[in-house]
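#structure-requests
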Amino acid sequence: MNEEYFEKLKKQQLKDLEDVVDNKIFNAGISIEYINGPEDDPDLIIPARKMMIINTNSNVDQPIVYRKGHELKHYEEADPLSVEVYEYSLLCKRQEERSASEGAIKMFASIMYSDLPNEARDWTKMVELFNLPTWYNQMVMDAVYDDPTELLRY
């Protein structure tokens, strides 16, 4: 029963975060198109067309809200006249992907933790909520805490 309860809380938290992110996307003038594509097809953002395409059948482990946040950060960092199309990727090999991931994590940290003092924040909750890989841990810690070195005191 506890498992079911916590899963329900997690779904509610993801829905609440998605409402906030959807508002940010809407305020940026971006349209979202949801498709039921093949599971290997990534989500896309086309900055010049102000269009985000979300594949609801995607086999990636991150929830749609995280993927939307990632693509939103691509849009915010892109040259608006560029014909570049960005595909969702959790890897950080390309600077554009690392920057979008860092931006999304910072955005989510500010939404989730801005009202909490450092000692009440738990970076592992964000990693768990978004099912992020371990190589994201330092990025998440840096985003969640005002001064990550303060962790040594807690």
